[in-house]
Design goal:
Elements: H1 8-15, H2 27-40, E1 44-50, E2 56-62, E3 67-73, H3 81-94, H4 101-110, E4 111-116, H5 121-126, H6 147-159, E5 163-169, E6 185-188, H7 200-219, E7 224-226, H8 236-242, E8 246-252, H9 262-281, H10 289-293, E9 302-314, E10 317-332, E11 335-346, E12 352-358, E13 363-366, E14 368-369, H11 382-390, E15 393-397, E16 407-408, E17 413-415, E18 434-438, E19 441-447, E20 450-453, E21 464-467
Parallel strand pairs: 3-4, 3-5, 5-8, 6-7, 9-12, 14-15, 15-17, 17-21
Antiparallel strand pairs: 1-2, 2-4, 6-8, 9-10, 10-11, 13-18, 16-21, 18-19, 19-20
Helix pairs in contact: 1-3, 3-9, 7-9
C-alpha cells in the first residue's frame, strides 16, 4: 500500500532542531539532544564505541521493520550539514498528533533505521576533515586502521543493511555544467569496481536516487548533480556497495546566500524522507536507470569572486585579464574568518563567481595602510571604513584589543602592528587586497577577497580577523 503523500517542507518547519543553527557545533552540543531523544522511548540510543580521543560515538535505532537502513554522517569532521538534518529527522520521528503519524507508523513497521551521527567527533572538535590520527576515514574501509573506521566497518558486518546512506559535504565551488548555479546536492550510487558495473544492488541505489532527484527539483530546480563515480577501493561507499548494501552518497553543496547551510540541510531532510517513503512502498523500483544517467555530473568552475576585464600592468605593458579570488575559511573556536587569495589570472570566460563583476574600464591600484592609529575596534564603524577605502586604504591598526577579541565584521584589515606591505602588482597566490580605479577615482575595493562596491552601503557580513602579526 502506497503511503499518503507527505508535506516534507511542513515537516521540516515543525521539527528543525534549533540548537544546531551554526556549522561549527561540537560533540558536547549534541549530547543533551541525544539524551532528550533517548527519554522519549521511540529511539534506542546506544554508545557503540569511542573515538581516538575517547569521545562517545552513538547509534540510534528507529522502527522494527524487516528493511534495514544504515545512515552515517560527519565521518569528515568539517562536514556537518547532514548531522543537523539527522537531528531534524530524530525530532520528526519523535513527533505525534501532527498529521504525520500514519507515515511514521508505516516507516517503523516496514523498516529499521540505524543512524550514526557525528562518526568523527575528534575531527569535529577541530573542524577538520581527518581524524585525530590524521587519517581520512573515508579512505580507511579496506584497512580499517582508525578506531572510527573499524567501528563503521564492524557495524556494516553486524547489521548487514539493505540500504546505506553515506552523508557528506562537498566544496562550494561545484556548479551545474554550463551555468553559474552552485550544486546544492550531489548524489551518487558509488561504483563497486573499476568498470563501474551495474548489478542489482547498485541499480537499486540508482533508482532511489532518481526519486530523490525528482523531489529535490521541486525545491532547488536545476541544482542537483552527480558526484564523480570513479571507483575508490579504499572508500566506504564503494565498499558498502560491494558488501551488498544499496548505497547512496549524498553530498551537501551550496545555495547562494546560505553560508550556514540551512537550505542545504532542509534538502537533506527532504531527500532522506523521500527515500524512506519510496523504499517503504518499493516505488523506487519503478524508476529508470536512464533517468539516473541523465543527472549531470558536477562541474567545478565557481569562485568566490570573479572580476572580468581588469586592466593590469606588467613590465610597463598593459594586459586585460579576468581575476579569480578564493576565500579560504579558517576555524577559530566555534567561529571562522576567511583568508582571501588571488587564485587565478587570465582568460576565465568559462568560469563563474558567486560575486561576478565586469570591471571593464578599470585598472589595478595597490592598497595602502592608514598610519594614524585608532584606540580600539570600537572607534571604527562602516562610515569611517568606507571613507578610508575610498582613499585607497585597505588596513588600519588599533592600539588596544579586548582579551579574546579575535574577529571583526568590518570590510577592512585590522592590525595591532603598523608593519604591512601590500603587493604593488596583482600576483597569483597573493593576498587579495587591492583597488580598482577608473578615470583616477577608486570605485571598488578588494579587501581580504571581498569585492566592495564603494557606491553602495554594506553589502554582506564580513568574516575578518584582528591580526596581531605583520602582514607581508
Amino acid at each position: 500500500m502506497k503511503l499518503v503523500k507527505v508535506d516534507f517542507i511542513k515537516a521540516f518547519s515543525l521539527y528543525e532542531e534549533k540548537a544546531l543553527m551554526h556549522r561549527r557545533f561540537k560533540h558536547p552540543d549534541i549530547l543533551p539532544l541525544l539524551e532528550n531523544i533517548r527519554s522519549t522511548g521511540r529511539f534506542t540510543v546506544a554508545e557503540i564505541g569511542k573515538s581516538t580521543e575517547d569521545r562517545s560515538i552513538f547509534r540510534l535505532q528507529y522502527g522494527q521493520g524487516p528493511i534495514k537502513i544504515l545512515l552515517w554522517s560527519q565521518m569528515h569532521g568539517d562536514e556537518p550539514t547532514a548531522t543537523m538534518a539527522l537531528f531534524d529527522l530524530f525530532n520528526f520521528f519523535n513527533g505525534k498528533n501532527d498529521g504525520f503519524d500514519a507515515f511514521r507508523d508505516d516507516i517503523a513497521s516496514k523498516m529499521t533505521l540505524y543512524f550514526i551521527p557525528m562518526l568523527n567527533p575528534d575531527g569535529t572538535e577541530r573542524f577538520q576533515r581527518r581524524t585525530a590520527m590524521d587519517v581520512d576515514m573515508n579512505r580507511d574501509a579496506r584497512a580499517a586502521a582508525t578506531v572510527e573506521g573499524a567501528l563503521l566497518k564492524a557495524q556494516a558486518m553486524l547489521l548487514k543493511p539493505d540500504f546505506a546512506f553515506n552523508l557528506h559535504n562537498q566544496n562550494i565551488y561545484y556548479n551545474i555544467p554550463g551555468t553559474n548555479t552552485p550544486v546544492t546536492i550531489s548524489l551518487l550510487a558509488p561504483a563497486y569496481d573499476y568498470a563501474r558495473s551495474i548489478n542489482e544492488t547498485r541499480g537499486d541505489a540508482m533508482r532511489v536516487i532518481v526519486g530523490i532527484n525528482k523531489i529535490l527539483q521541486e525545491f532547488v530546480p536545476r541544482a542537483v548533480a552527480k558526484y564523480d563515480d570513479e571507483h575508490t577501493p579504499r572508500g566506504f561507499g564503494d565498499n558498502f556497495q560491494k558488501w551488498g548494501a544499496r548505497t547512496i552518497l549524498i553530498e551537501s553543496g551550496a545555495y547562494v546566500g546560505d553560508t550556514e547551510k540551512m537550505m542545504v540541510r532542509k534538502c537533506n531532510f527532504v531527500a532522506l524522507l523521500k527515500a524512506f517513503e519510496e523504499i517503504a512502498d518499493q516505488s523506487f523500483k519503478q524508476h529508470s536507470i536512464a533517468d539516473y544517467d541523465a543527472i549531470p555530473f558536477n562541474d567545478e568552475k565557481l569562485h568566490d569572486v570573479l572580476l572580468r576585464n581588469l586592466t593590469i600592468e606588467r613590465s610597463g605593458k598593459p594586459l586585460l585579464v579576468d581575476v579569480a579570488i578564493r576565500q579560504n575559511e579558517k576555524t577559530i573556536g566555534s567561529d571562522y574568518y576567511v583568508e582571501g587569495i588571488v587564485e587565478d589570472i587570465g582568460d576565465l570566460q568559462d568560469f563563474y563567481g558567486y560575486v561576478d563583476i565586469d570591471v571593464a574600464g578599470t585598472e589595478f591600484a595597490p592598497a595602502k595602510m592608514y598610519m594614524e592609529p585608532f584606540a580600539s575596534l570600537a572607534d571604527l564603524d562602516d562610515a569611517i571604513v568606507m571613507g578610508l577605502l575610498e582613499k585607497g586604504y585597505a588596513a588600519v591598526f588599533i592600539e588596544n584589543v579586548i582579551p579574546g577579541e579575535f574577529l571583526h565584521n568590518l570590510p577592512i584589515r585590522v592590525l595591532t602592528k603598523k608593519a604591512i606591505e601590500f603587493s604593488q602588482q596583482l600576483a597569483l597566490g597573493a593576498q587579495a587586497d587591492f583597488f580598482l580605479r577608473k578615470e583616477g577615482k577608486i570605485i571598488y575595493a578588494v579587501v581580504n577577497g571581498y569585492a566592495i562596491d564603494l557606491k553602495k552601503t554594506r553589502q554582506q557580513q564580513y568574516k575578518n580577523r584582528i591580526s596581531q602579526e605583520c602582514l607581508i
